[in-house]
């Protein structure tokens, strides 16, 4: 299958160049214009290296050109290692010459000052107008390990090239990207591409992910992200990765307030709220890593390409203690430690009388004299126990070549016989011995807990791959628009009712007589509430009276409320008093929307009361979304059990709740340009089949 | 200061032997009786090695004795590497000979079968009667790195001896203890003692911790624990460690159900509930590690002996990205990223115009030409920023000897000038270059997140050391005892009221007239409840009627309740009907007690409703405890804000709540031998100054 998307085609010369020009090439490999020449030469880049420097005939033994204009052949990629003041001119020359892409190491742009920002905009415009793609500026470059196209000036690579493998790494930070590269290399991670995006004048992080998702040889995507400029592109990239069943592991930083401030000060990217990122990662099945170690470990696990079909995990160890550690971790990550079949347990006991045989299985150290015992244990677990993943503890066996070899002999036949099962070890030893295990398709981790964490991640990916991504709901033509005037509670509820968020029977009364008549029509008891777009805290000013059960009481309350409102807010425009039938029972929830600076309209959901206000047990999702997604959102909060019928209550009408949430998200999306926020609090969810009802609602328009 | 406790004195010959006999000494270093002889010889044990084997004149070049009886000099420690069938006899010979301690490698005891268990009991009795201490059986041994007394048969040590340092390691698992040793050694952890306790026929984990706490040269204690046999000893050990300001880091496993089952099947130790362990670790300031990596990392950090005085953390990096990662982590662990003083920020900007100067401080890569810039940044942060800890990111600088040296030169003066400040780096490189940093007192971690996690742990230890441990409250003679009869609600409340858990005004009525009279006396409205020790679910059978506001209503309700109770539970002994004044307002809480199999009486506290029942937001504490500890417990739940006055409510009377909890804990401790459980649900906490009141209570006696 050919890769044919426009994005792929435009980025291919950058990621897989056949000809690389180095603008500002230097004879000194310690300089940013010298390092890539050295790397490309020494590490065996098969394509052409064309140094450009007007001051030299030759650079590091290669013929040098005075200018890009002197190069008469097609150039896939030009490395820009010239001073910032020359950058725009040089880029223009490249574009004129038909250069397909630039890797701009040069710094001194938006990260520096206003002049730099102006120059960066010129680069953006040049890229847009010419079609020449630009990586950076102010970036550490890009490489393809397979092609040895090391267009980077990171010194980290001097200590060792990476193992060629299926992982593509994209980072918005150069230094952090290098650190990631080093730790990944030392971890034995097989990587194919590595790219740092710098100031992103043209090529952004999301586009790199898109390239990696489309590239046939890349199987795993590891990203470091500080912000997002182009949410649509990110959705597209993640959607493609999902379609191609490629796991995406992202370390998204700046989640804390102080972290976000630090991120904002050092990149120009908008952060977007952390809730929005979580919602998007969740939707596309992205694994969000907290630490770099975790990000690399999970990518490492994915690079083996074996994803357990079920959550059935078998643990077999040579130490009871390690079994307990792994069992605890399995419980933490929700894996299923199904016990071994009783009959098989008996067989194993005959083999090793004091073995633990349930699961975790403990072979004890009895196999030291006969390693085939180990083979038999593994065989029993995979064949009879039918586990889709096996986690095993062999402590420091890989320190010794002899032990390593025996272990390999014992488990190699099993690895070969069950290629679709995952085999992951907690084992310590020399890189060489570990590499031998890895080459057979066996995963190795030092820490027993981390083995289990990785297995859980692999299973989660498999589950995610098997599920179709939700298709965004259509926005019906009938979705109401927000009028250009302040909306009082009555207006807001009517608008939301049209949008699909139900509210109860109610009437806006202008006089005590109106109110009394309405109450009689609605049925007692009723509640009266002041209606004014200028009064948002109705209760505080005595603008709400509950439990009125006669026309007389209603008339009296009408007058009292009016008097209090006029006193408390003499300048408020009062639209009347709302008469509503009182509702009993049901579960109190809160629905709302707000605007995220990057991802736009977001919907919020939580239970009312302490759960939302004290514990912050709420869920967020980018609008719009359908009912199935709304249901996932409802089930994701900790307090979901209350809706499901905890504490002896009737199960609540979560279908109606999901419909309201989805419809609210569609309403928000349809009014994305004018809506600031919606607050439906409370939204009462009644018993199954009885629907839900908004008791209060507030809609705020954007102020501009 | 001399170490003089009896425990210390009795264990000193084990931990620091001058003469070691090896019973079952072998010429083959691959055998368990040969390995220690080899290790003691090769690694330079300065004391005497006395091989014992009747079949040889000489073992590994050392004169061999036919029997322990032939050794005419005092033996501190005898390694037992003989078959299980000989173990008891050999141990008895040792005791008769005055051997001070045995390290019993021999397996085949309680972990194997009933005969083995019997033999193990003989060993226990021998130890108790003779005063000779026994480690194991079925253990991997013990070593002191300083004395090179490697009385172990773990092969792990053949790959390298540990760095001598301040950490003492105690493990209940041999294989896991070895794995811990290997990873700790490779991490560069300086360790002094390592001990594995095996079947614990005599010496238990807690006693080892106690020895390490008392030992002057041990500064940090790292433990792996599966269960606890002797809670009092553990309290004593942890209390001593606290008094000596020694951090204790414990990886306690078996926290999950399946993990606990696995632990129970492979050791004989009782697990104790995880909540109880958490409560104890919390009390003594123990750091509970989830992963082995975390346990080793935190121990490593502690081994430097610098504990930040405050939570003020300065971050200085050469990469904005790493700064964001560290800032996120600082937020997660609650460290204070106070900004640099404005004036100093200006100075730094003059030094490096594009530096980030707030905190995180980003030097950018500008110091490569002048490393004194780095010195100036560090100086400014410690001198003017006044941070007690500095976290810094230098990526893979330690890969290069030259870069390492420059970095050392730049920061060494700072390290020397501010010895009481913590300096921790995220840096990758060769072990040699990392060791140079460590030797200067600078901490090194690969992962930037993990630097911050460690700093937070160090600060937490410092805070813990500065606080006195709570003294257990006295149990007053007036504490009521539980009578030997089933207790109905009325009895339970009266008993608890005597114990210090208040309940409201109420009266037990036998007739409708009694009830009506009582109601008039108490004041309306009242609630009526059936009282019978045989009926625990009163509400379900219609045994509770609320809101009665007249004598007529009370008489009617009395008869109805009685009729329903007789119908629902014809055989129940009915003691009458409880008339209580109805209470309004306040915050609903739940107090309770239960028995932990290891730690005894435990007190539980939570808010009523969803928080406890759905979210499990509850706190536990081992009884008894005082009011200050009770207050800590109250504040530890997530829903504490509700009591503190969230959602516009009055703050609740938490002092009264703390008093009730503490008094309940004293009541439980005083009745430890007869009490099964107490359930006070709900306990209403009223407004500040108005106290609390138990609305319902259930006390259950132990069934034996």
Word description of this protein:
In chain A, 39% of the residues lie in helices and 20% in strands. The first copy, chain A, folds into four domains: 6-302, Succinyl-CoA synthetase domains (Rossmann fold, 3-Layer(aba) Sandwich); 313-465, Rossmann fold; 505-581, Dna Ligase, domain 1 (2-Layer Sandwich), CATH 3.30.1490; 587-701, ATP-grasp fold, B domain (D-amino Acid Aminotransferase, Chain A, domain 1), CATH 3.30.470. Chain A is flat and about 100 Å long. Chain A has 704 residues and is an alpha/beta fold. In chain A, strands 9-8-11-10-12-13-14 form a seven-stranded mixed beta sheet, sandwiched between helices. Mean pLDDT of chain A is 93; it is low at 266-270. In chain A, helix 10 crosses helix 16 (448-466), helix 11 runs parallel beside helix 16 (448-466) and helix 18 (512-522) packs across helix 19 (551-568). At the A-B interface, helix 5, helix 8, helix 11, helix 16 and helix 20 of A face helix 5, helix 8, helix 11, helix 16 and helix 20 of B.
Please identify the structural class of chain A as seen in this structure: alpha/beta
Number of E-state strands of chain A: 29
Give the end-to-end Cα distance of chain A, rounded to a whole number of Å: 49 Å
Strand order within the widest beta sheet of chain A: 9-8-11-10-12-13-14
Spans of chain A with pLDDT under 50 lasting ≥5 residues?
A: 266-270
Strand content of chain A: 15-25%
Mean pLDDT of chain A: 93
Q: CATH homologous superfamily name of the largest domain in chain A?
A: Succinyl-CoA synthetase domains
Note the quaternary state here: homodimer
Major sheet size, sense and barrel closure of chain A? 7 strands, mixed
For this structure, the CATH topology of the largest domain in chain A is Rossmann fold
Largest interface (CB < 8 Å) = A-B, 83 and 83 residues
């Amino acid at each position: 299958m050919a890769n044919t998307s426009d994005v792929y085609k435009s980025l291919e010369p950058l990621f897989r160049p056949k000809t690389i020009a180095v603008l500002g090439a230097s004879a000194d490999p310690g300089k940013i214009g010298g390092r890539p020449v050295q790397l490309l030469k020494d590490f065996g880049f098969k394509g052409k290296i064309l140094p450009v420097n007007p001051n030299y005939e030759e650079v590091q033994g290669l013929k040098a050109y005075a200018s890009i204009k002197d190069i008469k052949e097609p150039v896939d990629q030009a490395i820009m290692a010239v001073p910032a003041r020359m950058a725009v001119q040089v880029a223009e020359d490249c574009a004129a010459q038909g250069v397909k892409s630039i890797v701009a190491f040069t710094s001194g742009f938006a990260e520096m000052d206003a002049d730099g920002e102006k120059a960066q905009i010129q680069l953006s415009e040049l890229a847009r107008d010419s079609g020449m793609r630009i990586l950076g500026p102010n970036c550490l470059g890009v490489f393809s390990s397979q092609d040895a196209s090391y267009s980077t000036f990171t010194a980290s690579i001097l200590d060792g090239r990476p193992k060629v493998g299926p992982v593509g790494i994209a980072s918005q930070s150069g230094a952090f990207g290098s650190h990631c590269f080093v730790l990944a290399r030392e971890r034995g991670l097989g990587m194919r591409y590595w790219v740092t995006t710098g100031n992103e004048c043209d090529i952004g992080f999301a586009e790199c992910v898109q390239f990696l998702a489309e590239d046939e040889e890349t199987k795993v995507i590891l990203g470091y992200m500080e912000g997002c400029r182009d949410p649509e592109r990110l959705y597209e990239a993640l959607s493609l990765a999902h379609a191609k069943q490629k796991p995406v592991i992202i370390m998204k930083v700046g989640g804390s307030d102080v972290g976000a401030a630090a991120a904002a000060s050092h990149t120009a990217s908008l952060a977007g709220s952390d809730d929005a990122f979580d919602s998007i990662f969740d939707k596309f099945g992205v694994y969000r890593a907290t630490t770099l170690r975790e990000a690399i470990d999970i990518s490492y696990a994915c690079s083996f390409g074996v994803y357990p079909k079920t959550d059935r995990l078998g643990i077999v160890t040579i130490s009871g203690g390690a079994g307990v550690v792994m069992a605890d971790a399995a419980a933490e990550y929700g894996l299923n430690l199904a016990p071994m079949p009783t009959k098989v347990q008996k067989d194993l006991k005959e083999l090793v009388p004091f073995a633990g045989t349930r699961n975790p299985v403990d072979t004890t150290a009895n196999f030291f004299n006969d390693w085939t015992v180990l083979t038999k244990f593994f065989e029993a677990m995979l064949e009879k126990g039918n586990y889709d993943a096996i986690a095993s503890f062999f402590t420091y066996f890989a320190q010794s070549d002899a032990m390593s070899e025996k272990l390999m002999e014992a488990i190699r036949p099993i690895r070969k016989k069950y290629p679709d099962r995952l085999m992951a070890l907690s084992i310590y030893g020399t890189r060489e011995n570990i590499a031998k295990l890895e080459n057979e398709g066996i995963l190795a981790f030092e820490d027993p807990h981390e083995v289990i964490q990785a297995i859980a991640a692999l299973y989660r990916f498999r589950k995610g791959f098997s599920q179709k991504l939700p298709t965004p709901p259509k926005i019906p033509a009938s979705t109401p628009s927000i009028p250009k005037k302040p909306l009082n509670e009555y207006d807001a509820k009517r608008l939301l009712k049209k949008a699909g968020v139900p509210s109860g029977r109610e009437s806006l009364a202008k006089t005590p007589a109106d109110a009394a008549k309405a109450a009689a029509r609605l049925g007692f008891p009723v509640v009266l509430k002041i209606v004014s777009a200028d009064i948002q805290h109705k209760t505080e000013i005595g603008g709400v009276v509950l439990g009125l059960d006669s026309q007389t009481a209603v008339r009296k309350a009408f007058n009292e409320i009016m008097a209090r409102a006029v006193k408390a807010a003499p300048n408020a425009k009062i639209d009347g008093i709302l008469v509503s039938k009182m509702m009993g029972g049901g579960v109190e929830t809160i629905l709302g929307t707000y605007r995220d600076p990057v991802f736009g309209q977001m919907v919020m959901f939580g239970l009312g009361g302490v759960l939302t206000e004290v514990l912050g047990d709420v869920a967020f999702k980018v609008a719009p979304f359908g009912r199935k997604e709304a249901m996932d959102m409802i089930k994701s909060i900790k307090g979901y059990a209350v809706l499901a019928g905890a504490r002896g209550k009737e199960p609540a009408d979560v279908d109606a709740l999901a419909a309201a949430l989805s419809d609210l998200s569609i309403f928000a999306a349809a009014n994305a340009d004018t809506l600031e926020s919606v607050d439906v609090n409370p939204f009462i969810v009644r018993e199954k089949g009885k629907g839900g009802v908004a008791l209060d609602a507030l809609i705020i328009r954007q102020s501009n």
